[in-house]
Amino acid sequence: MTEPGGIRASDAEREAVVERLKIASVEGRLTLGELTERTEAAYTAVTRAELDVITSDIPRSGEAPAPVPGPRPQGAGRRWFVGVLGDSKRRGKWRVDRQLGAVAVMGDVVLDLREAEVRTGEVDIVATAVMGDVKIIVPDGVEVDLQGMAIMGGKRVEVDPAPLGMNVPVIRVHAYAVMGDVKVIGHSRAEPLKRAWAAWRQQWHEVRRDLGMPLPPQPYPVQPPGPYGHAQPHPQAPYGGPAQPQGLHGQDPHGRGHWHGHGYQRPAGPYDDDRGR
What we know:
By secondary structure, the protein is an alpha/beta fold. The protein has helices at residues 11-26, 32-44, 48-54, 199-210; strands at 79-84, 87-90, 94-96, 100-105, 108-112, 116-118, 123-130, 133-138, 143-151, 154-158, 170-178, 181-186, 258-260, 263-265. The chain has 4 helices and 14 strands. The strands form 4 sheets. The protein has a 5-stranded parallel sheet with strand order 1-4-7-11-9, with no helix packed on it. Strands 2-5-8-12-10 form a 5-stranded parallel sheet, with no helix packed on it. The longest helix has 16 residues, at 11-26. It is elongated. The relative contact order is 0.12.
């Protein structure tokens, strides 16, 4: 007899889990990065056990009181980030409960949405760059709708798309660039985030491992902390790739060099003497 957790999931059950995740995101339970990651996991789930793990820390409808909507901010409703002859950056955990606007005039504006709580179902951004740059960082796997115009400038999207047929979050960007750039990049092309290992992901991997299924690559690789509480970088390890083994004092066992403080010292060449010149 097939165990209850080993029963295969249907398309309708996967879509139901995705809708449940979207509701949890609007309620502020999931960030945009978590929503994207769990949505992809839901669509790739084969059994009901995997779907149960994905939503194990999210209450079902009716189990928790519905949130009381707070007062809408006064004004037109769009939240602006402006950098004029300077920089304006928004990173980390923050709430997106209305439309966004970014203006860079001979300066830079950075909006990092990976850890943002998106309360609107989708994100609408107006980005204007005049001899400046507007950079929007999103999780890979979201749908990006970039429109607008560029005069002696550029607008581009560098985000790994989700497989066809997935109902993923949408980022709509209206770009206007004059001798400047507006770009939307995925997290694989940005500075990696330091994230803890989520309990649901560990359980989900255990379920797939028991069923003999392959594990997908992690969009947010978790690095073990170093002796001072910071992740240990490695000069030869690409982002998202396996960490390379290190020898004594951090020296690469293949003789390619080692770390000293915050810099990387190259190995001695054929014309270097024992004094390191």
